[in-house]
Here is the input.
Amino acid sequence: MSSSGDELLTAVRLHGRVPAHIAVIMDGNGRWAQARDLPRPAGHQAGMAAVREIVEGGLHAGVEILTLFAFSQENWQRPPEEIDALMSLLEEYIARESDELKAQAVRVRILGEIERLSPAARTAVDRLMAETAEGTALTLNLCISYGARSEITRAARLVAEEVAAGRRLPAEVTEEVLAANLYTAGLPDPDLLIRTSGELRLSNFLLWQLAYAEFYVTPVLWPDFTRVHLFEAIRDYQNRERRFGRVLV
Ligand code: IPE
Ligand code: IPE
Ligand code: MG
Here is the structure.
């Protein structure tokens, strides 16, 4: 790690208020490839190294939960060649990283409509989740075939089924009940959202859970993102004043 990386990490840890849960919209792979006259999948391939970086950085900084947006429901509308390349990369990522993730006590969970994945990708993610289930150092949520509106709709449907079956009264449907039926059930909301490549939008990511997250947008394209960029984002977060609608006295 560069000395500035070491210094930043020390500053992050000394401050103490490390965000427990960081969500990331990993964007800019296509532009990274385009800038090098490479096909878009080459950008996705390069983006895998940045996933390793953020996991390492998160472990060093003491982040408890990382939720990474890897593939959206809307991304199914991309050209089939790009989708095929992304699915192959997912399998490659799992084959390459699963031992290391397990050794580092990282618990991996997949959030999204995994039924839509190819059988091979589905088998790989199921295996990865089972093999890392005991990890206690970091929870790594990979959002794949994920869309926030459909996640919330799914939660509403699950709650409606409980009500229809007479197991719950309509008046008992609270925010907590709805949250308990999201993919993120049991996890605290993200404290910090990072989006790379400079785009200022949520793109249907964690619409419920990000209600009070601090936003950090960096122009860095995802394949260029390193742990040092993560530490910079955390330092920025540490200087924020979170009010949650109150007046601070
Ligand atoms: C993010 O990079 C990865 C996915 C959405 C799968 P993009 O592929 O969106 O890259 P840009 O936005 O075109 O540069
Ligand atoms: C959001 O990025 C999805 C992921 C990073 C996986 P997109 O590149 O798909 O978002 P838009 O289309 O620019 O909003
Ligand atoms: Mg994009």
In short: Residues 26-31, 71, 75, 86, 197, 222 surround IPE (ligand 1) (CB under 6 Å). The domain at 18-147+189-238 is CATH 3.40.1180.10 (Undecaprenyl pyrophosphate synthetase).
